[in-house]
């Protein structure tokens, strides 16, 4: 029992694993609970907040959706997260539950540790860390594909301790978890799911609690009310980066790069999306998402790509007075060729 403290659920998981989709489901089933959302994204375009704000779900009031877009939450704890939490806690109408969506590149550990800061420790506790995993991506080996190369590098240089940045993050997010959602099971077979479970468990010394799901459809009874108080156990869940930091290395997100591409109106969205698939494949784009202005359509088009999988749909009407724009955020590894990608996207939109 955590007394009168407000429970906060931290939802983490790699880029595009399905965090926002799961949160939407959670809000749709809020059952009268007042839930405040803190959403952190990598990249300057608040797509997740933009999708949740005004989504029409009764439990999702615009003032309860707080966006933190000044970098990954794990690096901006003191400047962004703590002041945001204190402001939220000072409101006269305090929420029943707080849900924090980290960016797909965030290490959850520093965020969870922040709940031990005196400003918030007496008022909030971490109900649990929920890590969403793209089971289809794991099954395709997207987080482990550099093993041979890394092992070869290690054998050349004894001091080298780095796995691929994707694999390290994947493991850090698993190690922080109280509950793991193996999402996107609609894309894999039962045998593949068993393989994913084995792979994920092999990355943690603790026995993991894993639930398979598709489109984040999990009962709130399973998701909320874990009652763990994870902040008290954070010392046992060290990330690769914390261990490296103890060895004198600094944590940064230098391995990843994001930029926003602004384009003109797109009159042929189907063909645009087909061409984007090629751009993503040619340039190893990890994540691409944003909004598209389709002339003659009253609705805003959402484009979402996770690796080679791409989706597009109209989500809501452009608001009166809102500028109709085509803006997409692109995320990749640090050597991604932003100039070539921007020019290819311009060509795709033409
Ligand atoms: N097939 C399938 N697609 C899914 C599932 N869950 C989410 N998606 C799709 O995956 C894409 C990314 O989902 P999001 O919920 O935005 O993922 P996210 O983790 O919030 O993404 P970031 O915040 O960018 O890291 C969207 O196109 C979703 O529709 C699922 O279970 N199955």
Automatic annotation (TrEMBL):
GO molecular function, a single term: nucleotide binding
Keywords: Chaperone, Hydrolase, Nucleotide-binding
CDD domains cross-referenced by the UniProt entry: CobW-like
GO CC, alphabetical: cytoplasm
Biased composition (Basic and acidic residues): 241-254
Keyword Chaperone appears in the UniProt entry: yes
Domain CobW C-terminal span(s) in chain numbering: 256-349
The organism's place on the tree of life at top rank: Bacteria
Residues covered by region (Disordered): 144-164, 235-254
GO biological process: cobalamin biosynthetic process
Catalytic activity: GTP + H2O = GDP + phosphate + H(+)
Similarity annotation: Belongs to the SIMIBI class G3E GTPase family. ZNG1 subfamily.
The protein's role, per its UniProt record: Zinc chaperone that directly transfers zinc cofactor to target proteins, thereby activating them. Zinc is transferred from the CXCC motif in the GTPase domain to the zinc binding site in target proteins in a process requiring GTP hydrolysis.
PANTHER family in the record: COBW DOMAIN-CONTAINING PROTEIN, COBW-RELATED
Protein name: Cobalamin biosynthesis protein CobW
Species whose genome carries this gene: Phyllobacterium pellucidum
Lineage: Bacteria, Pseudomonadati, Pseudomonadota, Alphaproteobacteria, Hyphomicrobiales
Gene that specifies this protein: cobW
